[in-house]
Amino acid sequence: MFGELDLWLSALVVLSILVALAATSLRPAMVFIFGLVVLYVMGLVDREKMLANFTNTSLASLVLLLLCSVALEKTLLLPRVAGWIVGETERSSLLKTIGVAGIVSSFANNTAVVSSLIAPLKNNNFISPSRLLIPLSYASILGGVLTLVGTSTNLIVDGFVREAGYPPLALLDFIWVGAPVFLCGCACIVYVSVRSLPKNGKTKSSLQSEYFLEYTVLPQSPLIGKTVSENGFRNLEQLFLVEIIRRGHLITPVTPSELIEPNDILIFAGDISQVQLLSHFPGLEPFDDKQDLLERNLVEVVVTQSSQLKGKTLKEVNFRAMFDAGVVAIRRGDERLKGGLGKIRIFPGDALVLAVGDDFMNMPNLASNLLVVRGLRTNQKFSGLNSALIVVGFLGMLLGSAMGVYSLFDGALFLLLFYISMRFISLNELFRKLPIELILIIGAALGIAQAMTHSGLADVVATGIMSVFGGLGPWGALAGIYLATWLLTELITNNAAAALAFPIALAAAQSMNVDPKPFFMVVAYAASASFLSPYGYQTNLMVYSAGNYRFLDYIKAGAPVALVYGVMVVLLTPLFFPF
What we know:
Layout: H1 4-23, H2 28-41, H3 47-52, H4 57-73, H5 77-85, H6 90-105, H7 110-123, H8 133-144, H9 152-163, H10 175-191, E1 210-217, E2 239-246, E3 249-251, E4 265-271, E5 284-286, E6 298-303, H11 314-317, H12 319-323, E7 325-331, E8 351-356, H13 366-369, E9 370-374, H14 384-402, H15 408-421, H16 427-433, H17 436-454, H18 457-469, H19 473-491, H20 494-511, H21 517-527, H22 538-546, H23 551-576
Antiparallel strand pairs: 1-4, 1-5, 1-7, 2-3, 2-4, 6-8, 6-9, 7-8
Helix pairs in contact: 1-2, 2-17, 4-9, 4-14, 4-15, 5-6, 5-7, 6-8, 7-8, 7-22, 8-10, 8-22, 9-20, 9-21, 10-23, 14-15, 17-20, 18-19, 18-20, 19-20, 19-21, 19-23, 20-21, 21-23
């Protein structure tokens, strides 16, 4: 039996977890595992249950689905659809972008969906990408709440439901509220949100945006002693020499008559796709490269919110050793960066162009620090027949699960074996793509939720929410749970918010002696409602730099969507899932 001391200890641990997630760059998996270990040492988590949480059926189903989606990402489905999306009018392009992103995200990984569509939206010759990319992210979030498998958050909540001893959530349980929310949310994007989005200049591709490049003049270079104009630096197409760093001093603006000296650091800004032009200048060495960096494939990545790189320079973190990749260029929206690449402090949302080594994809810290946007050598696409087999197999698996022919776990397991037998996925790919960090977060979160319930912390928080909203009855309590979960999502991450809010929602339902299912559903919906920040959801972060957005753009565009989404979820959930 837990006492008051245990309640305060568990409260201290949970508060520490929240602070660490919201205010530090520590990886979420590390935070959750550390919190779980502390609770275990204090005797607030049972050993057997703690270990069993990492083999939870819903967690296993989620892992299998993510592994199956590796094959889905290599099909021709999204590239073919992407070519159809952009037309000559903004409204039609916007509608097709939202429709495709939403529908595909209802059964596929929405990060992969957004990653596949960013490039064609930026490459179009008709519409400013900044008018399409935030809607792309928002639509993928809205599409994720249409089905149980649309987002990892839904499956996490299903795992908590099973662990609490309640019937599992069905594949299409989410669609009853999700469909009207999706339609109204999309209408809000088209008719309200898009009006506040900027038109950030002429359309460019991801690799044609203004990047920040650095080259060093080697001591033996024939460029030395000649002026900028004589060397031809003024004649480069879409590349501009903006600064020279000479013996620690910055020379800007650079005049055509400026003489080039040994060891000068030349700072260029412009179109990264034109970088090969600089290879024609003898005696120039790109930043962080000694062995023909630019002859290798270029990969564009975005720095994540939880990245270890945050606030540090490339030299401080020894970037090449961390990722087996050299940095070719950096871009931070439309901000003009200053100083050398090695001295620039990296921040979440920064876009980096990397020249990668053979071990780049095998680096264990890749997923937690960088989101790959485009350019991977492993992104080869299958033929039309193989693509059709992969897509039909995936949809068939979901259909059989929805009809109750087999469980989601069984369907995903046999589909994965089929993909492996057909060589659509290799074992090496499975090992590389195994979401270790997600497994650790979810398994630890289950244990933390148990401690919150057993120590009485969940009841205390639920009582606090009831004291504010309980006067309005179960509907008011439901609104309070939604608000609490939504705030956690914007502050930390969607998966962490679901984990911490679930035991509170269960305690609130039990205290009112009502069916807890509407509370479960509201937690799932609210945990995906990240529209006000580029950092609350991965897809928001992916389009942040690509669209040259500012933080305020998310608030202006996301506020009406968040309001419509929240009101509809709170009003509709009890209608389809009565108290």
